[in-house]
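Protocol step 4 of 5: obtain the predicted structure for the target chain.
Materials: sequence only (see below). No template structures provided, no constraints applied. The aim of this step is simply to have a reference model before the mutagenesis design in step 5. Sequence pasted as it appears in the construct record:
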Amino acid sequence: MTNKQLIEKFYEAFSRKDFETMNSCYADDIVFSDPVFGFLRGDEVRAMWEMLCKNAKDFTLTFDEITEIDHEYITCKWIASYTFSGTGRKVVNRAKGFMKINDGKIIEHSDGFKMSTWLEQAFGLKGKLFGWTNFMKRKVHKKARKNLEAFMKR
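Step 4 output (structure tokens):
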């Protein structure tokens, strides 16, 4: 399987909310980061995808522009649309994934997106007024981590 095929497999599985297939694309010691969860490693990453896929409402995902930077690094643009469970508001998250691949597995994965835009969509007026502040970003990050920890204890 080529690196591009691996990334296609990952995002096709994501579009179906198939966290098991997504996680099979990762190395055991996967390292992940994004603006909401911050830095995660190994089982935390796998649990995050399981939690997000199981809780996703009205979810659709599209992806394109898979770009191989070199034999290890690849990027992909993706758009997820869903109802944010915390507020019931519709979110359209435009993101770019950055992955490092070794021996046919993703070993590093980071997703970049504009946190203030996400906060405005997810929290409405409160997100629009305060989404640019570090206070609100930290509050959302702590809540996401707390939810993940609770999910992993189940």
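Step 4 remarks: The helical segments are 3-15, 19-24, 43-55, 115-123, 125-130, 134-153. Strands lie at 26-34, 38-41, 57-68, 73-84, 89-102, 105-112.
Proceed to step 5.
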